């Protein structure tokens, strides 16, 4: 009982702190300081983290492999991120594996880029909610 009371009375973290932690985690796969991040696309849906680790280890030290899964199906989404310890190892892996056939598919391997947020306009094309009125015709 005491353990549950301690949890209930704990101060919640401020929302700003929670958001900062989430964003730091989200972008850690793109640029994590000492490690290089590689995007690996057009993967077979049977590929595992261990498979990727084994292939990329031929070109240097693999620090981390992330294989995103579809939220609804729980299946792999067909791409992954691999972090390596140095730019030289990263360059060697990209040069060797980009365009290579693996598990029946031609791989797309390049330096990972930060995800761009898609800004969708509300209102569907020039409605009352547009802030940029310079493009309107009267």
What does it look like?
The chain is an alpha+beta fold and about 140 residues long. About 15% of the residues are buried. The protein is globular, with a radius of gyration of 21 Å. About 5% of the residues have low confidence. The protein starts with a helix and ends in a 27-residue tail after the last strand. Strands 2-3-1-6 form a four-stranded antiparallel sheet, covered by helices on one side. Strands 4-5 form a two-stranded antiparallel ribbon. It is built from four helices and six strands; from the N terminus they run ααβαββαβββ.
Strand order of the largest sheet: 2-3-1-6
Low-pLDDT stretches are 29-34
Number of strands: 6
Give the overall pLDDT as a whole number.
Answer: 77
Largest sheet: 4 strands, antiparallel
How would you spell out the order of helices and strands?
HHEHEEHEEE
Q: What is the number of helices?
A: 4
Broad shape = globular
Radius of gyration: 21 Å
Determine the fraction of residues in helical runs and give it as a percent range: 25-40%
SS-based class: alpha+beta
Strand content: 15-25%
* Termini separation: 69 Å
């Amino acid at each position: 009982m005491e353990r549950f009371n301690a949890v209930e009375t704990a101060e919640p973290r401020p929302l700003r702190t929670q958001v900062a932690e989430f964003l730091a985690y989200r972008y850690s796969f793109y640029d994590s300081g000492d490690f290089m991040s590689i995007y690996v696309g057009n993967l077979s849906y049977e590929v595992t983290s261990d498979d990727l680790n084994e292939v990329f280890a031929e070109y240097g030290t693999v620090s981390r492999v992330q294989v995103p899964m579809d939220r609804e199906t729980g299946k792999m989404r067909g791409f992954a991120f691999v972090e390596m310890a140095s730019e030289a190892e990263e360059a060697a892996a990209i040069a060797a594996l980009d365009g290579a056939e693996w598990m029946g598919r031609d791989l797309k391997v390049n330096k990972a880029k930060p995800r761009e947020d898609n800004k969708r306009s509300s209102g569907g094309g020039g409605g009352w909610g547009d802030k940029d009125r310079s493009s309107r015709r009267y």
